[in-house]
Design goal:
This protein is an alpha/beta fold and about 240 residues long. It has 8 helices and 7 strands. A 7-stranded parallel beta sheet has the order 3-2-4-1-5-6-7, with helices on both faces. It binds magnesium ion and zinc ion. Zinc ion binds next to loops.
């Protein structure tokens, strides 16, 4: 797993196998405990936190830019941007008028619950806001790190392979919704949307889908409705409304 990729510091490079397994288990247990605290914090404030995961280049930031615009100020939006380097994506989000904080992971390849907790202190998302957490572009280890989100949303664009869900099943299994982006390009490609949906459903039968285009805006009403439905369900669970 991800301990091999250098994101957990020097003790991750311990060669002895059982020692390494212990390090991995402790790291995930600590992360889960911090994620629990994050989730409680969000629930108490009616914040709908979504963890957006995908390969690099699938259009996460473009989707968020358009999402902020389409929400039209009906609901406050805050964004945590995760990248190894640069604040480019947070700058793009701030240009839309939404609050954003950039987290740089350096050599690390995923966000963890502690990074999110620290970013939330800085961001201070308002009550009943929608908090989008754009994870580092990586379909592997972000699947294992609970950030305290209400749901993971996996994004795949039609310029990628239809068989990605079978190649990266953990991520597609961890996600509640799959956004299929850049569908305006389908007429110019050999991409088979049906094959992608079948591949994803094979690894996660309960996965929901929305086909959209951050460029043209098609499909965004279905995406926003999915967020509204989830928020409503969360409010019912926490007994604050409904
Ligand atoms: Mg981005
Ligand atoms: Zn990682």
């Amino acid at each position: 797993m991800c301990v091999d990729c250098g994101c957990h510091g020097s003790d991750a490079h311990e060669h002895h196998n059982s020692r390494r397994v212990t390090v991995e288990r402790d790291l995930l247990a600590e992360n889960n405990s911090l994620a629990y605290d994050n989730r409680r914090f969000f629930a108490e404030r009616g914040i709908c936190a979504l963890n957006l995961v995908s390969s690099p280049g699938s259009g996460k930031t473009s989707i968020l830019e358009r999402t902020v615009a389409e929400m039209g100020g009906l609901r406050p939006v805050a964004v945590i941007e995760g990248d190894q380097q640069t604040a480019n994506d947070a700058e793009r989000i701030k240009a839309t008028g939404a609050a954003a904080v950039q987290v740089n992971t350096g050599s690390g390849c995923h966000l963890d619950a502690r990074m999110v907790a620290e970013a939330v202190v800085e961001l201070d998302p308002p009550r009943n806001s929608c908090l989008f957490i754009e994870n580092v572009g990586n379909l592997v280890c972000p699947a294992m790190f609970d950030l305290g989100e209400a749901a993971k949303v996996v994004i795949i664009s039609v310029t990628e392979g239809e068989d990605k869900p079978e190649k990266y099943p953990y991520m597609f299994r961890a996600a509640s919704l799959c956004l299929i982006n850049k569908v305006d390009l389908v007429p110019f490609l050999d991409f088979d949307v049906k094959a992608l949906r079948e591949s994803a459903t094979a690894v996660n039968p309960s996965l929901a889908f929305v086909e959209l285009s951050a460029r043209t805006g098609e499909g965004f009403s279905a995406w926003l409705k999915w967020i509204d439905d989830l928020s409503l369900a969360m409010r019912r669970v926490s007994g604050e409304g409904g």
